[in-house]
Amino acid sequence: MEEPPAIKSKRGKPKNSKGRNSVNRLVKYQNGALAFAFNQAIPFTNNQAGPPVRRKETLDA
Question: How far apart (Å, rounded) are the C-alpha atoms in residues 8 and 16?
């Protein structure tokens, strides 16, 4: 399956498709994108890391 041609505008570089933007983002952040799969200390989502920080903030206030 090929990617559709870029959308051309009058000025500047052509826009990328949503799929191309996703691939570019994964390539740019490839070390962090699947870090949780290789290191057990890294949580799968940030939701697992957030509550301890919030509890400490509420106790300090």
Answer: 10
